Structure formats: C-alpha cells, structure tokens
Amino acid sequence: MNSPSLIEPGLDPRWVADIVTRALDEDLGPTPGRDVTTQATVPPSGTGTAHLVARADGVVAGLVVVEEVTRQVAERFGLAPVAVTFTAQDGDAVTRGRVLAALTGPVQVILTAERTLLNLASRASGVATATRAWARELDGTGAQVLDTRKTTPGLRALEKYAVRAGGGTNKRMGLYDVAMVKDNHVVAAGSVAGAIEAVRRMFPDVLIQVEADTTDQAMEALDAGADFLLLDNMPTPVLADTVRRVREREGAPGGPAKIELEATGNLTLDRAREVAGTGVDYLSVGALTHSAPILDLALDLIG
Fold first, then answer.
1. 242 and 234 Cβ atoms separated by less than 8 Å
2. 242: closest CA among 225, 252, 230?
3. Where is the Quinolinate phosphoribosyl transferase C-terminal domain positioned along the sequence (predicted)?
C-alpha cells in the first residue's frame, strides 16, 4: 500500500500539516529546530529502514499522519524524503507484532520523526480501539456509539476521525454546528421553550438538542420543538419509559415525524446492550476520547 485509505470524511490535509508543525515545534524547538542526539550520532548521509509495529492488539488509526511527519522533518533538515510503505489501513484490527508500515530513507529523518508520529498515531489508535469495543457490543441493536466534545485540546479532528475508524459516529464537532440546550441555558433563557425559540430565531439552520434528566423534562422539550433529546443519567426503566412515550408521539397528528434519542451518563460497556434495548438511537460515551489509553506502537530501526 502506498498510502493508507482515509476513513470518510477524512482529515483536512491543512489541519494535519498544522498539527504536525505544532507537534514538531514542541519537540525540536522553533523551525527548523534540532535533534541534538540524532544529529550528533547519525550522519546526514546515513540511510536505513524502520518498521512501525503494533506492540498490542487493537485497532489502528492515525496512520495518515506518518507521511506528513516525515515530510516536514526532511524539509526542515534539507534531507531526502522518507519512502513509506503501509501494510495496514486506518480502521484495521491488528495483533501484537504486526508491522503497520516500513519507512526507508535518511535515518536522521526517521529517528527525529519517531516520537511525533508515534504520539499522534498511538493516541488515535487508542481511541479507535476503545470505540471498536463499544461498536462491537452494540452490533445488531440498532443503536450507535457517539463521541462527545470531551477531546484533547488541539486534537479534536484526529480523535473524532479515530472514532469513525473504530466504528463509532461523530456527534457535533463543536459549539458551532449543533445547538445543545442544557440546564444553564434554560436558566439563562427562562424556560426550555424560551431557549429553543432564541436559538431558532438567531440560528434557524441548526438542529437543536435538549438535555433532559427526567421524563417530564423530555416531554417539555418535545412540546417546545426540540429536534433531538439527550437523556442524561436515567435509570434503565425510566429511560425505556421515556423512549416509549416519545415514540408514541412520533407520527401522531401534530407530533414530530422523528426524534433522535441519545442516552448518556453513567454508561459502561457491560450496560451497553441493556441501554440500547430501550430503543435509543445513540449512546454517547465521553470516555472514547477523554479516557482511552493509547495503543502501544513502536518504530524499530532494522538497518
């Protein structure tokens, strides 16, 4: 494989280039920077091959950054580019010891790029691995696992990409694309209806989701015209009853055609199928991004 296939809708190449530049600046100092150990011990003319290897079972993601990291390092040091041959794709399930890519070229470039490419790919692969566990548990239920905005600052695009690679679904990308009316917004606006009305007046193009802790709150939000309900921290019987009541309203005269329902709060993998069985469309899990451990990857120089 010459380059890994992107998980749709992919990553913006400009974003990838920018985050790699920032990460290299952290490691090397301001452009062009320096790697005092590698540049002292490895001649610029030295060439070799290194393997990117999985040290644990999991799902890989973020391989798409590898070529950009090596490209930028070579450019900074005025060295020849590194040729990268991939033997895995983002979204692949891999086992410990699997070679994911071979990097051939100036050893200075390979060693200097090592930590940056591993940091990004290991982080993304950890998110993809955690997501795959949820997606597998929900398989056949009709429900999907969603991410949240609880992402690492600066890495949201990569982490949400990794969720897709793992088989999950992105919710909103930020505060700009979907309105989320929470309790503080209700207090500020005076009521759920007031908050929804204010959003529709100023931003008529966005979907409006409302957070509800109780069945009564969910019905109030439905009456006010919410497009999407976030059912937060409800015990399973309460959640099931709320879903039933919402579904009864769908398609009824004067009622909504379809309301998307999302369960969140206190969700664990061992409860996933139980919660999905209530009929919700989504389970949102902040832990996919805020608590997923990295997938251990290594870059081993072989010659």
1. yes
2. 230
3. 127-300
Q: pLDDT digit string (tens) for 68-92?
A: 999 999 999 999 999 999 999 999 9
Instruction: Say whether both 110 and 203 belong to one domain.
Output: no
Summarised one tens digit per residue, pLDDT across range 191-250 is: 999 999 999 999 999 999 999 999 999 999 999 999 999 999 999 999 999 999 999 988
Residue ranges in the chain assigned as alpha helix (H): 13-28, 36-41, 66-77, 107-138, 156-165, 183-189, 192-202, 215-224, 236-249, 272-276, 287-290
Helix (H, G, I), strand (E, B) or coil at 93: strand
Closest CA to 136 of 262, 280, 287, 269: 269
Q: What is the band of 303 on the pLDDT scale with cuts at 50, 70, 90?
A: low
Residues 141 and 286 placed together within one structural domain of the fold: yes
Do 24 and 74 fall into the same domain? Answer: yes
Please give the Cα distance from 119 to 295 (Å, whole number).
10
Tell me which H or E stretch contains 47. strand 47-54
Q: Is residue 227 domain-shared with residue 260, that is, in the same domain?
A: yes
1 in a structural domain: no
Which one has a higher pLDDT value, 33 or 9?
33
CATH number where 55 lies: 3.90.1170.20
Q: ω into residue 4 within 30 of 0, thus cis?
A: no
Query: What does the block give as tokens for 144?
Result: 């999907």
Token pair 């999991």 is at which residue? 58
- Are residue 71 and residue 163 in the same domain, yes or no? no
Residues recognised as catalytic: 115, 150, 182, 211, 232
DSSP state of 4: P
How many structural domains does the chain have?
Answer: 2
Taking the model in full, what pTM does it have?
0.94
Contact between 230 and 258 (Cβ < 8 Å): no
27 and 143 part of one domain: no
Domain that holds residue 34: 13-126+293-301
